[in-house]
Amino acid sequence: MKDEISTADTGRAADKAAIEDLLSREIDAFFSLDYATWADCYLHCDKMRSTMMSHELGLDVRLGWDQHNEGTRLHFEGEVPTSTQWEKRTEAIHVRGDMAWATCRATTDASLCMMGETYETWILERHNGAWKIVCVNVMASRSKQHESDGIAVDAEGRVVGMGPRASVHLQQHPAFTLRAGFLRATDPTVDRALQAAIGRAGALHGFFEQAAYTEMEGQRFAYPIVIERTDDTGHEVIMLTVQDRYTYLDFGASAATTARVDASAMIFDLSDNQHRVAQGIVAGQSLPEIAAALHISPATAKTHLQRVYQKTGTATMTALVRTLLSTG
User: Fold this and answer.
1) Local structure of residue 80 (DSSP, 8 states)
2) Whole-model pTM above 0.85?
């Protein structure tokens, strides 16, 4: 009996090693554009399935080997990437007879994938003594595109991702710093508001928490923190959003803030010039800066701002920003 158990354990260990080697060969071949090796990792049949999902590209479902193969055609017709970095970690492999499934986590900076970090499930079958992939599901999170503009923090507020632009901005920012891995404001009042907002966002990291919030509020979570400049020349906006179980902090104007101001401009019936002034205010520009950008006089910019105040029922830049970003 012990010999039988030992033989079975040895067989499972050999199968797991073979499967891990197969998954490594598949991703190596994919990034080196070795089509023959990549294709040999799969079972070429109609029952094969593949799904890929990311925020940038949406959901892509491929039914059968022919569709899966066609879906990668443009990739293998390109040039071999010279600087792509990637890492795949196999978390678990389970073998039951001639079937197996594996779970993996991978990261990449490949611009083609735009995925950043992925969670993967692979199903395999043994055919003629060799393991072949029959189903693959790849779900992406922590988009590299999103991360390049913002700072990503986990539910506890610990910084887990920061792109180049966000890193440079933070290094040059006089009001914020990193302390023991956490984003902190140097001003105690601002820091309290920042930590409270991060905590509120962290409570919505779960899928059902986000769904419940969206149903109650009628929109996804997006919370603006408005910080007055000490020189009275304006303010700065930090936008907090939740995606993929992370909170993203975007400094200044971003795609999210621009879209919200655009929507608010329609709701409050702002003219084109009033809309442009509102966008400048949300971007943290002072009135002289806005006037110069729009090639109008500061007095005209001030008139447009007063009309925006009247239409939105606000009287200060801070109140205006909160209204524009909370309504849109």
Assistant:
1) P
2) no
